[in-house]
């Protein structure tokens, strides 16, 4: 791997795109108060379907569409079982995470290790010419550009639109929202499905761009769990969530670079390195959410800035079953 | 009286029937003859003495891990890190074998191995528990992160300090001396020690939940953590205790995997049994009685499915799909029935 800065930075940005999709999808879902824990299996299954469909039809676009639908369907199962049958979201999500992974390996067997279509690079004219920045941000594929737009779209939707406000209400206090006439169940359901659609797109981004092709292991294993942790890291706020995705992508690339520097250490050790880092970041964030630290921050300016950046408030009804009566 | 027996019976018939029906439909949907699959699964798991022994070898870690999970689940804790706790148990076992043999007699080393496995698994779980209670890190992420760390640790050991003389390989460490293998029933390749300890752990778990103050506290805190605090029960203390117990059980499973089944440390030593145990306990609806039977059913699926790629040319991950689908359909149908009954009342 080249150690030139723009090349590394471009790899980080490209590698972060699927994480941005998955983590923002989950942000939308969790803002409505539902946890979709199935992400890990969901990403693999949609990665497999995305690749298989693109291979069969020769169209990368169809691959993305069908992968999105697969993600949406899985999210639909999570949402409907918890909203209408009152099953524990965590239980259903976890079972689906395991089952979809097996389903992906089972159904994807015929597509293992074959060449298929993948997203091509599409530099943006003019913008690509900007020194350094052009190379990093504007010599990517179309889905990477879409991920930039998505970050602001999700932010705009949540904080600047009526629907966004209603969704946040449903996630914070569904009972009150229901009394105010907000269709809580419908909102929760459809935005979980929408979140799942984005997760599906993320899966296809792996098999059609970041780690092209399908096989066992595909290389996206464990990413769903990371995406879930990034949502917490970002405090359920789209811009911070996206930053978390870039940070994680940077850690992955750093792992690969370090591997070149220390060839005697097995590759797998570097592959797992981001996971303890994930624990540390969660620990760090929680530290700033503590009451005593918050109180200290009132008088200490450095702490105030840090705690403002790192403070995270989960939606109040997150993961709870909503009873209408 | 009639209501007490008939109603649950009908409920269970509907639940099991739906699970069976949906799996059959799924198999048709993926163009596999379901009855051929069922036949193969049964023959492949119960068809010979040798196969039953293999089923029991899977049953042992499943029951141990499920018992551990009953403690954490009863407090509402999601100990997803159980997979890593098995791995730490295996590492503890290998460490004892490497450090103390042959300077100590094999039987002592075995005991030390078991002890170290229990401690290593327990401490690994305790770490996730401390991250949760003191650091506020959700136990799902702490456990999961630690699973990956444990996997990294095993790989590092296999490729680094404990590598085979000459070359390190994914096939694991050098096999242990024969004296450090758990003895098996002749012609039936199952360790009677492993089997009896698993049964003992299960019975102990039942007794703890049914007849002891601990069990009562576990249930009380799980049902209502605030009430627990009001009555002066330290929720954190019990959470850590439950995590340690779960990790200790998983560590034991790691010991049997290493000393009884593989006779060395391999990268896939946990064989996903921790995750599978989570499904077992969920399918058991978090109660202890069904655990050994469901664990047996899942073990049969696991062992039986090895036949599938050879005979029907289909991937053995089918067993994972059947297991997952059973739990999913069970959860949905069971809750649907409960909702219906509540609305009728």
Protein described:
- The complex is a heterodimer of chains A (325) and B (345).
- In chain A, 71% of the residues lie in helices and 0% in strands.
- With 325 residues, chain A is an all-alpha fold.
- Chain A starts with a helix and ends in a 15-residue tail after the last helix.
- With 345 residues, chain B is mainly alpha-helical.
- Chain B contains 14 helices and no strands.
- Chain B is globular, with a radius of gyration of 21 Å.
- Classes of the chains: A mainly alpha (325), B mainly alpha (345).
Name some characteristics of this structure:
heterodimer; A: 325 residues; mainly alpha; B: 345 residues; 74% helix; 0% strand
Task: Summarize the entry for a quick read.
The complex is a heterodimer of chains A (325) and B (345). Chain A has helices at 5-31, 39-57, 60-84, 89-108, 133-137, 142-160, 162-172, 174-179, 184-210, 223-233, 238-261, 267-272, 274-288, 291-297, 301-310. Chain A is mainly α and 325 residues long.
Q: Structural class of the helices, strands and pairings of chain B?
A: mainly alpha
Percentage of helical residues of chain A?
over 70%
Low-confidence stretches of chain B: none
Query: Gyration radius of chain A, to the nearest Å?
Result: 20 Å
**What's the overall geometry of chain A?**
globular
Indicate the proportion of strand residues of chain A: under 5%
The quaternary structure here is heterodimer
Q: How large is the count of helical segments of chain A?
A: 15
The N- to C-terminal Cα distance of chain B equals 17 Å
Major sheet details of chain A: none
Mean pLDDT of chain A: 87
Strand-residue fraction of chain B? under 5%
